[in-house]
Write a structure and sequence with these properties.
Elements: E1 10-15, H1 18-28, E2 32-37, E3 53-58, E4 64-69, E5 80-84, H2 88-97, E6 104-110, E7 113-119, E8 125-131
Length: about 150
């Protein structure tokens, strides 16, 4: 019997500097911080989070993005975070107003799909993507599982 997966729970991103990561993900992108654990939050029996500085940020739809300082060395280019936005051109104006230069400005990569790439403080690519149809994923536009 296959495992029943209901949804994506959370994504963990190792970061070198939690304050710098929060400036990017919270201050620039506007994600809400809903959980903070510092290295001393280990409890009487210890914890998997002991020694780690963690900020949990809520994404629309309920998925959590966990930024974790002290977990392991982040590697530039090792992870891409893709966030669906309502208006990538408006996002571009906000990003530039904050003094951030995109790695790639808004570009229509295929009809109806426009992307912009940013670089977070750890060198990780953050993709802001807008789907003209308003869907939340590339896969919603595909006929996944249908016969060709």
């Amino acid at each position: 019997m296959p495992i029943t997966i209901r949804a994506l729970s959370h994504i963990v991103l190792p970061v070198a500097d939690l304050d710098a990561a929060l400036a990017f993900y919270h201050d620039l992108l506007g994600l809400e911080v809903v959980v903070r654990l510092d290295p001393d939050d280990s409890g009487p029996d210890g914890s998997i989070a002991a020694g780690l500085n963690i900020a949990g940020m809520l994404l629309p739809g309920g998925t959590m993005l966990e930024l974790v300082e002290g977990m392991q060395e982040p590697r530039a280019g090792s992870t891409v975070v893709a966030l669906n936005v309502a208006d990538v051109k408006a996002a571009h104006l906000e990003v530039e107003a904050a003094g951030v230069t995109p790695a790639m400005p808004p570009t229509e990569v295929t009809p109806g799909i426009t992307m912009m790439f940013l670089t977070d403080p750890d060198g990780r690519t953050v993709e802001l993507v807008e789907f003209a149809s308003g869907v939340s994923s590339n896969y919603a536009n595909l006929n996944v599982g249908s016969a060709s």
